Amino acid sequence: MSAQPSDLPAPLLNPEEGQRVRLLSYNVQVGINSHRPHHYFTGSWRHLLPHPRRFETLDQIAALLASHDLVALQEVDAGSRRTGFVNLTEYLADRAGFPFWYHQLNRDLGKIAQHSNGFLCRFRPSEVTEHRLPGLIPGRGGLLVRFGSGDEALVVLLLHLALSRRARFQQLEYISEVVNTFRHVVVMGDLNCEADSPEMEMLFRTTRLTTACDTAHTFPSWRPNRCIDHILVTPELTVTQNRVIREAFSDHLPVAMEVVLPPSLRLTS
After folding, report:
1. What is the pTM of this model?
2. C-alpha span between 241 and 212 (Å, rounded)
3. Is residue 256 part of a domain?
4. Residue 6 domain flag
5. Which pairing describes strands 114-121 and 100-108: parallel, antiparallel, or unpaired?
């Protein structure tokens, strides 16, 4: 694993004052290992039919996830023909040793596909809430996971936004209202846009969210030139490391971050 120069750790400020939490966001492409553009065509059947190497790839992904505390997964399947009716969020949680896992089914195609978001965590949430995101084409959702209560709760929002800019504007306007309800927030996911895009600039302008790095390219995994996978945080969360992990098990690269929580906020199992 290596990090781009722009992803080098930020200075650590009073690390003993707060709890360290390791975050990771990853679009896993249903366990399809893509290394070249033509794999979208030669491997397209794997989006519909089972393939034994899918679980070899998922085992490699699970080994990567195991060193983190809170993991946001996009493009997982809740159990259809293509995965042998295995819920991939549950599978990865079991293989990576996470005691808590949750999935959000966003597009139900029956036995053909169960398009989902997934969340893995080592701490017990106090609340998990599903949000249906606006857009002309249904099937995009957000998963809100809360740890603790009141002003000192930590809220994590897992997102996978639309391909259409118009829809992303609608979705991020909706998300900004949710974010502004809480004090300590992390937003993780495949946002399908870069940090300097108009829709992201709107999000930063209307919320207290910030990005630790806006040049960490995550897509496509074989020659990354776009920064579309993000971890955003509110200012009270001190970012001590932000990097892209150079392991190509999908068409995206995972993005990882370590934060130090405020002393008043502590996650427990």
Report:
1. 0.89
2. 9
3. yes
4. no
5. antiparallel
